[in-house]
TrEMBL record:
It comes from Limisphaera ngatamarikiensis. Pfam families: DUF4832. The keyword DNA-binding does not apply. It comes from the Bacteria. Keywords: Signal. InterPro entries: DUF4832. Residues 276-433 form the DUF4832 domain. The keyword Protease does not apply. This is DUF4832 domain-containing protein. The lineage of its organism: Bacteria, Pseudomonadati, Verrucomicrobiota, Verrucomicrobiia, Limisphaerales.
Length: 460
């Protein structure tokens, strides 16, 4: 038996099996059933390193790049390494999370060679803050050198001019400053960039990137002793010790934990997730045990960390290893718990002549909004393959967790054949071959991959 639909007529509600007859002045009402959205919905979920984790569903991949790989002179850039990276990740239907760095323990310096030749100082030392990996050689530049500072702002401007809004690029973590681009030089805090340099970098990013989200490592308010205030800027944040140093403990020695820092940075930072994404990395010590039935026995409650941070994506290598079936299921549920989950609660269609008025009600069951400005499209398709499409006036980024939004549009059915009409709702990825946004409804992909079937009607 075909799925039942509700026909709300003027005098009451009747139930029909199969497509509902759309008569004038009658509203055909559909209530699509809930089903969990997939773990690899776009711009959210777990993020493996580029090329890894191929057996676990994901829509984002991460990679570091040394600034030296693309910057060859004060105003000279070779974007080939970045292009190859973005195209490689896009070939798997994924979008990229990218971070440029100047220093990375165990790797060659990321400072552009022309600056090294010009005499920018590099401190070569053994970095012991590399757990769980062994100590490794590091090359910390003089972040106050005006030649390096000029290079950073020129690079960011050129980076944004070429790549802001590029659909292959999902997120940027600001990077550039500190070990791994994580905005610290622990245990040598005295070597880290001054607030003046931090402000120059943040100003450059805000000017260069108006579309692609940029995330900072540490939230900071006006009185922060180390970091320039960023709480009222247009950045998201990334917690690179997620699940380990995320939740507040009340202990003074844990004041560097992510939520403790957010609270100290003030209400604007605390509520930043409402308008800008929260990302991060699951702490490596948790990778071997996080999805086991017995858990890790250390670290913090993962689900609570997700709820309180409103995290959308997390770098993770635990899902790049072989997982037992029960581990896989727990990891999939955790990946789905990140970010948005959009469900269609109901839809209605009213036919007047050859015009069909359609209303759709959406809700967000997730922990964060969908931050991109992708359009929502409605399609009416007949049995002969002809269709008409229009954009629905939804603003998905304004649909916060627990909120419901309703939009209505009018479709001209003049081009379509009388008979059965299928109504489809879709949010397409602007990246060629990218994963479409899929709704948390059982009839997602039922009649067309990437589209939710709202229902079927019969047009006289």
């Amino acid at each position: 038996m075909r799925r039942s639909f509700a026909l709300a007529a003027v005098l009451g509600v009747l139930w029909h099996c199969g497509p509902a007859l759309a008569d004038a002045a009658q509203a055909v009402v559909f209530h699509p059933a809930y089903a969990p959205a997939p773990a690899d919905n776009p711009l959210k979920g777990f993020v493996p390193y580029a090329g890894q984790g191929r057996k676990f569903p994901h829509s984002l991949e991460f990679s570091y790049l040394p600034l030296a790989a693309v910057m060859t002179g004060p105003t000279n850039f070779n974007w080939t390494p970045l292009e190859k990276l973005l195209d490689d990740i896009a070939s798997r239907g994924c979008q990229s999370v990218v971070r440029f760095y100047l220093e990375y323990p165990g790797r060659a310096s990321g400072v552009p060679e022309y600056l090294v030749r010009a005499g920018v100082r590099l401190r070569v030392w053994t970095n012991t803050n590399t757990q769980p990996l062994p100590p490794a050689p590091d090359h910390t530049p003089d972040y106050e050198d005006p030649r390096l500072r000029a290079a950073l702002t020129r690079f960011i401007a050129a980076f944004g001019a070429r790549y802001d809004g590029d659909p292959r690029l999902g997120y940027i973590t600001a990077g550039l400053l500190g070990t791994w681009g994580e905005w610290h030089c622990h245990p040598h805090g005295e070597w880290f960039a001054s607030k003046t340099v931090q402000i120059e970098v943040m100003d450059a990013y805000e000017a260069a990137f108006r579309k692609t989200p940029v995330l900072l490592r540490y939230p900071a308010g006006d009185g922060d002793p180390v970091y320039a205030s960023n709480s009222r800027r247009n950045f998201g944040y990334h917690d690179d010790s997620f699940g380990w140093a995320t939740l507040e403990t009340g202990r003074k020695e844990d004041e560097w934990f992510s939520l403790a820092r957010l609270r100290r940075a003030g209400p604007s930072a605390w509520n930043r997730w409402r308008v800008a994404p929260i990302g991060g990395e699951i702490r490596p010590e948790l990778w071997p045990c996080l999805w086991k039935a017995e858990g890790c026995g250390r670290g913090q409650d993962f689900a609570q960390c997700v709820r309180e941070t409103h995290a959308t994506w997390l770098m993770d290598s635990s899902t790049s290893r072989a997982l037992a079936p029960d581990e896989q299921e727990r990891a999939l549920a955790a990946a789905r718990s990140l970010g948005y989950e959009l469900q269609v609660l109901d839809a209605s269609a009213v036919l007047t002549g050859r015009r069909l008025e359609v209303s759709v009600t959406l809700t967000n069951r997730g922990v964060a909004p969908f931050y991109a400005s992708w359009p929502v499209h409605l399609v009416a398709a007949d049995s002969k393959g002809r269709e008409t499409m229009t954009e629905m006036p939804f603003s998905l980024k304004s649909l916060l967790p627990g909120m419901t939004g309703k939009s209505s549009v009018s479709l001209d059915l003049t081009r379509l054949e009388p008979g059965e009409i299928t109504l489809l709702l879709g949010v397409m990825n602007p990246m060629k071959g990218g994963r479409p946004l899929r709704f948390a409804n059982a009839d997602q992909d039922r009649d067309r991959i990437g589209w939710l079937t709202l229902g079927k009607i019969v047009v006289p």
